[in-house]
Amino acid sequence: MTDTPIIRFQNVSKRYGDLTVLDHFDFEVMSGEKVTLIGPSGSGKSTVLRILMTLEPVQEGVVELDGLSYRQPGRHGPFHASARHLHQIRSRVGMVFQNFNLFPHMSVLRNITEAPVAVLGLSKADARARAHELLEMVGLADKAQAFPAQLSGGQKQRVAIARALAMRPRVLLFDEPTSALDPELVGEVQEVIRRLAHEHDLTMLLVTHEMRFAREISDRVCFFDQGRIVEQGPPGEIMINPAQPRTRAFLGAYLPETSTG
Amino acid sequence: MMYGFHWDLSSPLAFAWSILPIILIGLTVTLEATALGFAFSLIIGLGLALLRRARARWIAWPTALVIEFIRDTPLLVQLFFLYYVLPQYGVLLPAFLTGALALGVQYSAYMSEVYRAGLDAVPRGQIEAAAALNLSRARAYRSIIIPQAIPRIIPAMGNYLVSMIKDTPILSIVTVMEMLGLARIIGDRTFRYLIPLTLVGALFLILSMSAAAAVRRLERALPKTGIPLR
Ligand SMILES: Nc1ncnc2c1ncn2[C@@H]1O[C@H](COP(=O)(O)OP(=O)(O)OP(=O)(O)O)[C@@H](O)[C@H]1O
Ligand SMILES: [Mg+2]
Fold first, then answer.
1. Contact between B129 and A103 using a beta-carbon 8 Å cutoff
2. In order of start, what are the domains of chain B with their CATH numbers?
3. Which of B47, B35, B148 is nearest to B96 (CA)?
4. Which residues, numbered 107 to 136 in chain B, qualify as contacts with chain A under a Cβ-Cβ cut-off of 8 Å?
5. What is the ipTM of this complex?
């Protein structure tokens, strides 16, 4: 982890119609930092990730990634940015979705090689070699030829992680990567993410309701409520001894060892 | 006599047998008109669907209006329009081409809806995953969206093909000699309508049923998850 910010939200407002999801929101993430976003449903955690992935435009404020501002001056359309500019931003960031979103008509291998070939211009051979390495890393070396429908949820999510990594992002976003899984499959996915967090200088943003896991892998935990970060800090502080009553109340529901006083 | 075939009025069976070759010539015209009309509808329909999905409102909105207009007017009106109005503006097409074009235009409105429904049925998450992998819009369509839309689109298209076959007799009104038109002429000349019309009815029945069966088989053969292109 360095002390240069790679992600910056400054005074960002995000609305859906009349509903203001983020209201003058400020947020920074350092390069290589592992940050976990926690908080009640509807508090805006996914929205932050979706904005970073350019899946949602913002109405106000500045969002920057790796020095690239999400909006370009003089541009129109929902994103106020050219397709080429969005392409540049997307080349630095990847996302792992709650529902995996694997491409069901493609083999596992093709799921992973499609974008490196189409976007990065890798040769098919190179892309395949890299895909096999990544599959090895997520423990699915034998599943290259399988189709998503033949995999368990945990296996699907591990493929999705491999697919995102194949694009060599600098920032990887995880939106509740284990929430759609049967309980017995959560561990295998967490193990992969844990190794990524510990062994790579990738910047990671993770939304999760798994508090123990958040504690293990994060440098910083941010507690969201109603579109604001109410409290943040190292997991040891936030999770063991939260200062804000709302954080206490929220954590009380998840962590028995947190005093809800 | 027609097309060099003489009819034999000695018995109903002999009559049927003697006019069958004439009706079969009409059948080829029916099939050709359907094939060409269907091809037109696929192409025009795709154009309409894409324009309808355009981000610019001043393109999407008039397109929606055109689609609605085509859908809400009878095929015969469009046929007459192309057949009688276009020549007044110097566009003189052969009757067969005019007929196929009218079929194509009418069905393009339905096809545009088929394309739209097929594309819209691809889950949003798939499009978001494509964006997260930095695939361009064009590439996302080619690799992710269209392949998953195809298993929904093709059966619907097949159903319209079946119904287009049954609309071809309308072309006889503008002198295209397809099956029904020929049957009527044979009736007019022999004063026997039952047998030629029954023949035509039976041929339409066979045609429709086999086309529908082919569509069902195709539908079953298509993988539900999608068909990778290339
Ligand atoms: N496309 C949308 N249109 C309208 N409202 C939306 C849309 N997406 C999200 N919202 C609303 O924005 C608010 C924040 O949503 P968001 O998904 O960021 O919450 P979250 O913190 O991720 O919650 P959860 O834990 O349930 O996933 C919610 O009130 C949600 O209903
Ligand atoms: Mg969420």
1. yes
2. 12-221 (1.10.3720.10)
3. B35
4. 123, 125-126, 128-129, 131-136
5. 0.94
